[in-house]
């Protein structure tokens, strides 16, 4: 799930020899094929791009199913958030709605696999704005990359993601 409207992710997947993902909502999701939800539109479809204040205000009316997919993911998966600022009003609202819903409907004690507070996802922070960690600590595990400045923190994030990829990939030499 991305708020980016460029095709860099799709190109990166193709460069690895992988199948280009279905891009939602324009391509149909297919069993066994990866998909990518472009929450804020696609450059190939300029009318779909969420960019202006009006677009953001009308997001829910125009794109509720896309927001619902993000919310379903937050409720059913552990989401790794990379390269986001968590300043997007729509993403904030969607995440807060999930948090409120889960807070009002706590898990049954002793039932395995139920919601764990603070485990909707993990956020990788490279901004150096550590106060944001306190704002989101009930919804997300917060990983602050080390370094004295943004370039150093970004480099630490790149190394971390390379390690994740090395452990996740079984068919690529590292």
Architecture overview:
By secondary structure, the protein is α/β, with parallel strands linked by helices. It contains six helices and five strands; from the N terminus they run H-E-E-H-H-E-H-E-H-E-H.
- Major beta sheet summary: 3 strands, parallel
> What percentage of the residues does DSSP assign to strands (E)?
5-15%
Strand ordering within the main sheet:
3-4-5
Q: List low-pLDDT spans.
A: none
- Total number of helices: 6
- Helix- and strand-based class? alpha/beta
Q: In angstroms, what separates the terminal alpha carbons?
A: 26 Å
Mass-distribution shape: globular
Q: What's the helix-strand series?
A: HEEHHEHEHEH
Summarize the structure.
The chain has 174 residues and is α/β, with parallel strands linked by helices. It has helices at 8-15, 53-57, 59-76, 89-104, 131-136, 150-168; strands at 22-24, 35-37, 79-81, 121-125, 140-144.
Task: List the defining traits of the structure above.
globular; 174 residues; single chain; two-stranded parallel sheet; three-stranded parallel β-sheet; 6 helices; alpha/beta
Question: How are the elements arranged and paired?
Answer:
Blueprint: H1 8-15, E1 22-24, E2 35-37, H2 53-57, H3 59-76, E3 79-81, H4 89-104, E4 121-125, H5 131-136, E5 140-144, H6 150-168
Parallel strand pairs: 1-2, 3-4, 4-5
Helix pairs in contact: 3-4
């Amino acid at each position: 799930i991305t708020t980016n409207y460029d095709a860099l992710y799709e190109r990166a997947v193709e460069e690895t020899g992988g199948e280009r993902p279905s891009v939602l909502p324009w391509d149909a999701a297919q069993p066994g094929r990866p998909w990518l939800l472009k929450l804020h539109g696609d450059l190939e479809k300029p009318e779909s791009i969420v960019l202006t204040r009006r677009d953001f205000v009308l997001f829910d009316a125009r794109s509720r199913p896309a927001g619902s997919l993000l919310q379903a993911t937050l409720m059913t998966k552990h989401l790794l958030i990379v390269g986001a600022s968590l300043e997007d009003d729509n993403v904030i609202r969607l995440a807060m709605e999930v948090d409120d819903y889960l807070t009002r409907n706590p898990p049954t004690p002793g039932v395995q696999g139920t919601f764990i507070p603070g485990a909707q996802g993990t956020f990788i922070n490279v901004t150096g704005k550590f106060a944001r960690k306190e704002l989101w600590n009930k919804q997300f595990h917060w990983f602050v990359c080390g370094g004295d400045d943004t370039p150093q923190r970004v480099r630490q994030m790149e190394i971390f993601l390379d390690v994740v990829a090395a452990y996740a990939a079984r068919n690529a030499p590292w």
